[in-house]
């Protein structure tokens, strides 16, 4: 992964190898002074740095971890510096789970429970009678869960579940 500081360092090294003088480029053009050329190159380097920083800013750092204890799941939210517990009811057991950088989903035999670091706290949806989970995908702040009857998604930013019925043939 290249972040903006690494890219700036690489660009600076390239220009040092090409032109080790005090000025970045020895300009001999009558239309552009050395100071103007250095300013233009400096602006170019800052623009590249800002663009690379924006690309890196879209990445979500790992700030969520799950710890499985007897009868509960603990979400360790390092961004907010807090721990939130999902208590399992009597005879409830975990069927599946996935943890991404900022969102997690736990599937039990009774409910779907999701956690988002920005919304904080667990949000649950009950499993309907006869419904079976088929697939689960969790990434960054989003989760999508497909069951035999529904397609559900969870936003780790707002903490909201959405769902629609499936047209299963």
Give a quick set of tags describing it:
single chain, 169 residues, alpha+beta
> How many independent structural domains?
2
Largest sheet: 4 strands, antiparallel
CATH topology of the largest domain: Thrombin, subunit H
Determine the structural class based on helices, strands and strand pairing: alpha+beta
Tally the beta strands: 11
Using the CA coordinates, give the radius of gyration.
25 Å
Q: Residue-averaged pLDDT, rounded? A: 83
What is the correct CATH architecture of the largest domain?
Answer: Beta Barrel
Which regions are unreliable across 5 or more consecutive residues at pLDDT < 50?
none
- The N- and C-terminal alpha carbons lie at a distance of 44 Å
The shape, in one word, is: elongated
What is the succession of H and E elements?
A: HHEEEEEEEEEEE
Q: Helix fraction?
A: 10-25%
Quick recap of the structure?
With 169 residues, the protein is an alpha+beta fold. The protein is built from two helices and eleven strands. A hairpin with a 4-residue loop joins β10 and β11.
């Amino acid at each position: 992964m290249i972040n903006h500081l690494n890219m700036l360092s690489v660009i600076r090294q390239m220009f040092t190898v090409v032109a080790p003088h005090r000025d970045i480029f020895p300009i001999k053009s009558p239309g552009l002074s050395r100071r103007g050329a250095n300013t233009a190159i400096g602006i170019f380097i800052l623009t590249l740095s800002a663009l690379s920083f924006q690309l890196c800013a879209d990445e979500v750092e790992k700030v969520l971890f799950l710890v499985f204890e007897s009868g509960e799941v603990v979400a360790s939210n390092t961004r907010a510096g807090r721990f939130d517990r999902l208590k399992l009811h009597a005879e409830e057991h975990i069927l599946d789970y996935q943890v991404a950088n900022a969102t997690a989903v736990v599937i039990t035999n009774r409910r779907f429970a999701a956690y988002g670091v920005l919304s904080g706290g667990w949000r649950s949806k009950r499993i309907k009678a006869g419904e079976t989970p088929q697939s689960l995908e969790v990434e960054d702040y989003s989760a999508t869960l497909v069951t035999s009857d529904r397609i559900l998604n969870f936003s780790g930013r707002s903490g909201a579940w959405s769902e629609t019925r499936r047209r299963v043939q």
